[in-house]
């Protein structure tokens, strides 16, 4: 949480000095804060604030998956294995195998990055306040420029604090404007004078409420900025987490009726920065294709990516080398981030096209095994939800437009450590690269990263309905998401040319009563019946499973399990299942109280006793 004392490089364009030491001599060409106390300078620091969403290959924070959250949401949540080799990135291996300690370097890097984002937000607020009258006289997108500047900064201040709450719990320091201005290194405690934890839910909500009340509906040509509706969605998410049970240790309170009302307003009136009312994209696949995913109407809060020239570092928030295949795409990569056996089998469906919510999918053989010669073989006759082959790469199924994996060569670095499946959502199509010189970088593309999309929000609303007694109404919203899954499927292709090919497999669309041919494997989708929504327990089980398959490999799973208070049981079951295929899970156990992760030990030492470990890790 240390405030940057000399320079904070916000963009490639400028450096901002933040040192009050009169002995400091500014280097030639340095830009001081006084130089930036005008509209042009404020725009620069706003740009720097937005740039905190990115990590570059020269920034070690991408190892801790700052905003993709795949190390926590997916790997710790049981949707993915770390991949690569067991000894590569031992701090990551420890998280994956639940050997969690407060001195884990990933957690420390995550903490540092979160509070760097808070710092950048406070810089914008502090500078804008110094020239408030000047900025208030300027016109903004829909109001005065000063108010819109503060609204953007308070959105990001709330956003970054909430990222901390999701992982470390709500008893973490809240660094507001007063604390920021008080010291180069503000010592903000997370306990009061009596030693009681100070939960910061309301501070975050106050920031996001201000953003919701004061941001414009759209930004015209500045389409990458956060608008009113994105702020509203983030506000609803915070209140939803605050309403969730955890295990009774996170200062929560019931705000489900507020969540429901706010989401109703967003569903009715929300729009993206092009003025498109929020809607589900026509197909699931287009959400993860560059050039198609950006303005479908489903994006509520995206990390916007672009690609040009030799640029390669800021358009792959998982790390430009980290998650790529080890060579099969003609690019380099370390082979991290492999979908788990449990996740892939979760997409198996019954005769009605419904998932096996009772967990019986774990009693079935894994969809990919190896033959007598040690080559991977996928059983494509088993009917699955078609979202599977958008989410995960399987052998004998076209991998976007690259090729059809048939051997592990170049695809999987170590099958004994990561299993037989490849991440796919995060990898661009071959066509995305074109002739650009960054074609050697596996995941650099103009494909945006969705932090909040409309399907996510619809499932939040379904959850709010379930929590307030509207079980059957919740079914309608869950089925909206499920119906979209039937709109497309991966088709068979010639392995040499990737041209269309004839196959014996079909897509059985029980939603619309049609059958698609030449499928890459057998697919089937149906809608949930009313009988599954006659009780809270049954309706919530459906909601939980649909979130698992719709949002898989998008960094959400562990956070959901933790807030629902079921993470111990779910991960214990996951360990017992996954260890049948990967011996690294043998003898591992998940802590019963781990609904939050430990505050990094380095931060507690740095804060000299002001910061107290959270209740679950004392």
Question: What are the salient characteristics of this protein?
Answer:
8% strand, mainly alpha, three-stranded mixed sheet, 618 residues, disordered N terminus, 35% helix, two-stranded antiparallel sheet, single chain
Task: Describe the secondary-structure layout.
Blueprint: E1 7-11, E2 14-17, H1 39-51, H2 70-76, E3 80-83, H3 90-96, H4 105-130, H5 132-136, H6 145-168, H7 177-182, H8 201-214, H9 228-243, H10 256-269, E4 299-303, E5 336-339, H11 341-345, E6 368-370, E7 376-378, H12 388-391, E8 392-393, H13 415-418, E9 422-423, H14 430-433, E10 449-453, H15 454-467, H16 471-484, E11 505-509, E12 514-519, E13 523-525, H17 536-550, H18 557-564, H19 567-578, H20 601-606
Parallel strand pairs: 11-13
Antiparallel strand pairs: 1-2, 3-5, 4-10, 6-7, 8-9, 11-12
Task: State the gist of this model.
The protein has 20 helices and 13 strands. It has helices at 39-51, 70-76, 90-96, 105-130, 132-136, 145-168, 177-182, 201-214, 228-243, 256-269, 341-345, 388-391, 415-418, 430-433, 454-467, 471-484, 536-550, 557-564, 567-578, 601-606; strands at residues 7-11, 14-17, 80-83, 299-303, 336-339, 368-370, 376-378, 392-393, 422-423, 449-453, 505-509, 514-519, 523-525.
Give a count of the beta strands, DSSP E runs of length 2 or more. Answer: 13
Largest sheet: 3 strands, mixed
Radius of gyration: 24 Å
Q: How many alpha or pi helices?
A: 20
